[in-house]
Amino acid sequence: MHGNLYEFKNFVDVSLCHEICGTIESTPTRSCTSLDFFYVNRTRDIDAFKTSTRVILEKIIDDVISKMREVYNSPDLVINHADVVSSPDGHTHDVHSDSFSITTGEKYTHPGLRKRAFTGIVYLNDKFRGGETFFPKLYHDVIPEIGKLVIYPADILHQHGVKEVMLSGDNPDRYTLSIWVEHSG
Questions:
Q1: How would you classify residue 47: left for phi > 0, otherwise alpha for psi between -120 and 50, otherwise beta?
Q2: Which of 13, 16, 89, 122 has its CB surrounded by the most CB atoms within 10 Å?
Q3: Does this model's pTM top 0.90?
Q4: Residue 54: inside a domain, yes or no?
Q5: How many CB atoms lie within 10 A of CB 107?
Q6: Whole domain around residue 160: which residue ranges?
Q7: Using an 8 Å Cβ cutoff, are 176 and 147 in contact?
Q8: Is 1 among the domain residues?
């Protein structure tokens, strides 16, 4: 454990990860708004997936929330948002926090972002080099492994980024299921 960061290998069965990955490219990406230009052509809302894949994703999300409730002793956790995220060759993600400005240390003002209490990431594939999720304040890198879940508080201590993704051959992008939860009250 690093801070309140936990990793669970084989949280999602590899066959389910393959099934999800097989539908990603045929699923429309989220359109641009002023808040998410960084994610244009890279994120897919769960509702955009065909029904059979959406059911699998919703079950995984429920399982992740259950694990967070257990680990963090927070029975009131509910979904804030979830996306399937693609990271292409050469992609990096700068260090950030999911609910705080790392510059000012204050909560974000956007209502959806400021309510985030915990984050979960499920790695849906691992046929690439790099792409580690790194936590500079914890001096820890999470190595992507298919089916692995990592969960952590959406606070300033658990600020994180993504190291460069390096694809080879015809391997697909780095795919993750990102889940943010909040307290229901």
A1: alpha
A2: 122
A3: yes
A4: yes
A5: 16
A6: 6-183
A7: no
A8: no
**Domain count of the fold of the chain:** 1
What are 21's two structure tokens?
Answer: 């990955």
Give the model confidence (pLDDT) of 149-178 as tens digits: 999 999 999 999 999 999 988 888 999 999
Long-range contacts of 43-49 (CB under 8 A, 24+ apart): 43/83, 43/84, 43/85, 43/86, 44/83, 44/84, 44/85, 44/86, 45/83, 46/82, 46/83, 46/84, 49/23, 49/84
pLDDT-based confidence at 41, cuts 50/70/90? confident
Helix boundaries (H) for 14-159: 14-24, 51-71, 111-114
Strand, coil or helix: 7: strand
Residues 6+ apart with CB under 8 A from 162: 87, 91, 92, 93, 131, 132, 133, 134
Tokens representing 45 are 């809302």
